[in-house]
Specification:
The complex is a heterodimer of chains A (737) and B (350). Chain A has 737 residues and is α/β, with parallel strands linked by helices. Chain A contains 26 helices and 16 strands. In chain A, the strands form four sheets. A six-stranded mixed beta sheet of chain A has the order 1-13-12-16-14-15, covered by helices on one side. Chain A has a four-stranded antiparallel beta sheet with strand order 2-7-6-4, with no helix packed on it. Classes of the chains: A alpha/beta (737), B mainly alpha (350). The interface between A and B is large, with 75 and 43 residues.
Chain lengths: 737, 350
């Protein structure tokens, strides 16, 4: 069993999977030498990296020399672009891109001065020996500064590719050029074989691979022999370096397919060849690398095949990168109509360009200008007959008809399960399909839909995360707010005084009192019924407390329970009682003392309610006075001896005290007295005693409601007591009568 | 200047379904001609009748389905179906048998399932099986080879027999050999003889067998084999299904013959009798109803071969290709689901 490297040395080829043999049509363009075209009126150099990895190094109006760099950047992936000729920058603006979409891209437009003055950084070509002292990093830097990208079509930056993370065992120089029509690599190999070998030697030096294969398809015999000779002349070691000829088969030039044919290995799905220790480099890129490293000459021109039956002068041309397609169409006598195609690349994988003002790019290897009969005629898509030819030709060993079935039904998940993403879009299946089904187009649509789906999923996931974070944040904020509020409340509670607490209790009591007042309207008539009266609140409180303690009925009946802390008031009351007794003894009727005692007993009601001692005294005095008068009147009405007058004068010393203390009380008392008198006079009329007693009460109630003064209330209470007394007296009188 | 845009690839082999079908039809011609040579004008009459009915019925169905009529008829698929059914029906079978079979194949089996590319069963074989089950007497009345027949049918006689509702005795006359014994197909003969206690060697001594092969049938099979090889050469079909069918039939027959030569017929007789070559190259390879992957096709073909052998040897029918193919059609989606090629870069095996 030979090792892989031994088999490579023997030139073993492995079986290619799938593939087709489309008409090659290479003879159209490979019979003439590489030519040049007259200079264009303007060159359009797209600056796709500006705004991303690069910044503009020039501005409109600047003069640039050929090879002068137009951008600057320091990013790892930065790839400079250079002026393809000397001239002035006339625009930096959006121009149609050389892309299937034709979307505009920021481009630098240079008007050539026709002198083609070369940048002074470009120097005469050195020999390979002159760069031996350079480090790999220096060489890679030169390659990067020259803006070298893969010229096979994908235009991947070479300085990244040539700096792989792992060791490279096998370096493959891809000179397959399997697409029909294209001959640019063929021609550059024929004309620049030694320079290419120098480029290969530089790459070989960078990577130090164990083996190097220059792979050429057998439809390029001239190139093969020329390269063979150049190889023998080159500095490349004889061992481990070989030119391998492959049978012509499309798409054996695909990187993955080439590796499979040359090594029998497969690049794992989603991986790069470097993981197998293999690196594939396009042959024309090696020429550009040599130019960059040995001459400091940037990548500003390349060989482009211009071919097809719609062009009078098919062939290969050295074209400055940035040449407008329209210019080269006119220079090669393009005879097509707008119903014809302008294909960038080959007929299998190239894209049809819509707008010919787009420029050539670093990856533009061919411009195919077929006439109406050259390409496949437009034919109606027929039903798939499951012939399976597509699966036979598929180099990726996919099942194209299953992919088609699911792609068409938009069952993209199923299409992915059939490895949709391993499709290299080589076009073999579409080429072979007897039902004219544009399979690759279906796959492209499906792929982009899958890509979008993934993108949308990603976006949805982000949105979900955002939403969750927001919900979390709101929740956190709410909790924080609540904690803050709780803390503040605690602080307030801690700072709160006893009075504040009382206030709450008072408010509670007020509410209770109101309820009770309503329930016992008869008794509570002495209490303030005006709810809106805020000033009376304090009084009400005190009353309410009491009311809560003792039922109103008891209040009237048991005066002894009431906490009368005033001695004077008691004394006064005792005095009054004593006087009353005396007066009663004097009176003939035995019922009077009862009456008096009732009257005096009722007196404490008011002071008890008022608490204040002074007022109590006043009230007592007033009561006494009233009692006297009432007794006096009673005497008068009952026609008793005038001794009562002397008796009434006895309490006089008390009265001045009351007068001095409070004028208002006196006034109130006077008013009450007056009223009492009137009531008494009316009572004299024996027929309507009950009525009067009833009316006298409302009379005393009214001032209470109006006058919010405590004293006024006291007076009122006193008046009430008097009125009671009068009423009883009147009753007695009536009884007597 | 603005140009036309289109998706790649811009090249096409430009080899259409209609061309494919047309070439397949051309490749059947040697077999059809041989069949005519041995079995008379009836073969051609049935084929012509089948094609006419197929084209008319397909046109009507397409009209009903609101599909382009002319374009679809041009794909030649109905033509091929009718041809295959026409050559499978006994040459002197009554006209209504062919008409019913073709109508069933085109209208029900093909178009009611969605038309070309969507049918599950091979239309020709489904039509054939329908006839075989419904009209076993007519479908098994195969005529004697011309050179062995006591009364070979000429063109006029064939037309009369097919279209004029002949009496049973008239038909019977064409089935008699020159020895006056009613002849069946070679496979039928062996089956009957084996059931009557004869050994296969004894059976092969009968006049219908000539040097170990059925008279006429050997050459018919050879002609279809030649047509099949031409199809392979022209890349009209891939080799996997025919090889699968023939190899598995050969292997099964060899094993059976080696185990018990008296009650089993040899592998070569299996390969060159009945519809073997026609079915292996022209019917089993119908892409619509077959498996699609390379390994799947080998399995699909092998399955047909095994089923044919089993039914021929142990079943009630002398030939079994129609049943075997329909059964394999049923398995095709299943095979496709489980047998997928390993995609490039996906390491399912090391």
């Amino acid at each position: 069993m030979l090792t892989l490297l031994e088999q490579i040395d023997k030139g073993t080829l492995w079986r290619a999977i799938g593939g087709i043999h489309p008409p090659e049509q290479k003879v159209l363009s490979n019979t003439t030498n590489i030519a040049s075209l007259p200079m264009a009126d303007e060159y359009v150099i797209p600056l796709p990296q500006v705004g991303d990895n690069a910044t503009l190094a020039v501005s409109v109006g600047d003069y640039v020399t050929k090879g002068e760099v137009l951008t600057s950047g320091s990013h790892f992936g930065y790839l400079p672009v250079h002026a393809p000729t000397s001239g002035h920058i006339i625009h930096i603006e959006q121009r149609p891109s050389n892309h299937a979409s034709g979307l505009p891209v920021l481009s630098c437009v240079i008007k050539p001065d026709g002198l083609d003055t070369l940048s002074d950084k470009v120097h005469p070509k050195l020999a390979l020996t002159d760069i031996e002292h350079l480090s790999n990093q220096e060489i890679l830097s030169k390659i990067q500064q020259a803006g070298i990208a893969g010229l096979g079509g994908a235009a991947f930056p070479s300085h990244i590719k040539l700096n792989p993370a792992s060791d490279i065992e096998l370096l493959i120089i891809n000179a397959i050029e399997c697409e029909p029509y294209i001959t640019s690599d063929d021609m550059i190999m024929r004309e620049q074989s030694d320079a290419i070998m120098q480029g290969i030697a530089i790459v070989h030096r960078l990577l130090k691979p164990k083996r190097l294969i220059i792979a050429i398809e057998d439809n390029k015999p001239q190139a093969i022999s020329i390269m063979q000779q150049a190889l023998s002349r080159s500095v490349l070691p004889e061992d481990g370096v070989r030119i391998t000829t492959l049978p012509t088969l499309y798409p054996s030039g695909g990187e993955k397919q080439l590796i499979q044919i040359l090594t029998g290995q497969e690049v794992p799905s989603g991986a790069i060849p470097a993981q197998l220790g293999i690196l594939v480099q396009n042959v024309a890129t090696c020429y550009a690398i040599q130019d960059a490293v040995l001459r400091n000459y940037p990548l500003i021109e390349r060989v482009v095949t211009i071919t097809g039956n719609n062009v009078a002068k098919p062939g290969n041309y050295w074209l400055p990168i940035g040449t407008p397609i329209s210019h080269l169409l006119s220079q090669t006598n393009f005879k097509g109509l707008d119903t014809d195609k302008v294909i960038i690349g080959g007929p299998m994988m190239g894209y049809a360009l819509y707008n010919d003002s787009a420029p050539t790019l670093k990856g533009t290897n061919c411009i195919l200008l077929p006439d109406a009969n050259e390409m496949a005629p437009e034919q109606k898509e027929l039903p798939c007959i499951r012939c399976g030819e597509c699966a036979v030709v598929c180099p990726a060993q996919l099942l194209p008809q299953q992919l088609f079935w699911h792609s068409k039904a938009q069952e993209y998940d199923k299409a992915v399960s059939y490895n949709l993403n391993d499709c290299i879009e080589c076009g073999c299946c579409s080429y072979i399909c007897p039902s004219n089904i544009p399979l690759v187009e279906y796959y492209r649509i499906a792929k982009s839909a899958v890509k979008n789906e993934i993108e949308e999923k990603k976006q949805a996931e982000l949105a979900k995360q955002r939403f969750e974070l927001r919900t979390q944040r709101l929740e956190d904020e709410k909790l924080a707010r609540e904690a803050k509020q709780k803390e503040a409340a605690d602080r307030r509670k801690a700072n709160m005084s006893g009075t504040d607490k009382d206030a709450v209790a008072q408010a509670m009591a007020r509410i209770k009192a109101k309820k009770e007042a309503e329930a016992n309207s008869e008794v509570a008539s002495s209490a303030p019924t005006d709810k809106r009266d805020a000033v009376a609140a304090a009084v009400a409180r005190a009353k309410a407390k009491k009311a809560a303690q003792t039922s109103p009925e008891k209040l009237e009946a048991s005066t002894t329970q009431d906490p009368v802390d005033d001695k004077k008031a008691k004394v006064a009351a005792a005095v009054v009682r004593a006087k009353a007794k005396k007066a009663a003894l004097k009176t003939a009727d035995a019922t009077l003392p009862e009456n008096d005692s009732e009257a005096t007993e009722s007196i404490p009601d008011a002071p008890v309610a008022q608490i204040d001692d002074k007022k109590a005294k006043i009230a007592a005095a007033v009561a006494r006075a009233k009692a006297k008068k009432a007794a006096h009147k009673a005497v008068d009405t009952s026609a008793i001896e005038p001794q009562s007058d002397t008796e009434t004068s006895k309490p006089v010393p008390d009265t001045p005290v009351a007068e001095v203390d409070d004028k208002k009380a006196k006034i109130a008392a006077a008013v009450a007295k007056a009223k009492a008198k009137k009531a008494a006079l009316k009572a004299a009329d024996a027929t309507e005693v009950q009525n009067h007693a009833a009316t006298s009460e409302p009379a005393t109630d009214a001032p209470i409601a109006e006058v919010d003064d405590k004293k006024a209330k006291i007076a009122a209470a006193v008046a009430k007591a008097k009125a009671n007394k009068l009423a009883k007296q009147a009753k007695l009188d009536n009884g007597k009568d | 200047m603005a140009f036309k845009i289109a998706s790649s690839p811009h090249l096409s082999r430009n080899f259409q379904t209609s061309t494919l079908m047309q070439r397949v039809i051309l490749c059947t011609l040697p077999g059809v001609a041989t069949q005519c040579y041995f079995f008379g004008w009836g073969v051609l009459i049935q084929v012509a009748l089948a094609i006419t009915v197929a084209l008319i019925s397909e046109a009507i169905v397409l009209q009903l389905r609101k599909r382009p009529v002319a374009d679809t008829l041009k794909d030649n698929s109905a033509l091929l179906t009718a041809l295959l059914l026409g050559i499978a029906i006994p040459p002197l079978a009554p006209w209504w048998l062919t008409v019913m079979g073709v109508l069933f194949a085109i209208v029900i089996v093909k178009h009611l399932y969605g038309g070309l590319g969507h049918n599950i069963f091979n239309p020709a074989m489904a039509g054939y099986v329908m006839l075989l089950i419904s009209f076993p007497v007519q479908m098994t009345s195969w005529v004697a080879p011309m050179m062995l027949a006591s009364q070979p049918a000429d063109l006029l006689g064939s037309l009369q027999l097919i279209f004029l509702n002949p009496s049973a005795s008239e038909v019977e006359a064409y089935k008699l050999g020159f020895d006056g014994i009613a002849m069946a197909t070679p496979l039928d003969t062996i089956k009957t003889d084996l059931s009557m206690g004869l050994t296969s060697i004894e059976s092969l001594t009968k006049s219908i067998f000539n040097d170990g092969f059925g008279v006429g049938w050997f050459w018919v099979n050879m002609a279809y084999l030649a047509g099949g090889l031409a199809m392979l050469k022209l890349n009209l079909i891939r080799w996997h299904i025919p090889v699968g069918v023939l190899a598995s039939l050969f292997i099964c027959a060899s094993v059976g013959y080696l185990l018990n030569p008296d009650t089993h017929v040899g592998p070569l007789l299996h390969l060159f009798s009945g519809a073997t070559m026609l079915a292996a190259f022209f019917i089993a390879t119908d892409p619509v109803t077959a498996a699609t992957s390379v390994r799947g096709r080998l399995l699909f073909g092998a399955l047909i071969g095994v089923l044919v052998y089993v039914i021929r040897t142990y079943g009630g029918y002398p030939d079994a290709f129609a049943f075997a193919i329909l059964l394999a059609n049923l398995c095709a989606p299943f095979i496709d689901h489980y047998i997928k090629p390993r995609t490039y870069g996906h390491r399912s095996r090391s």
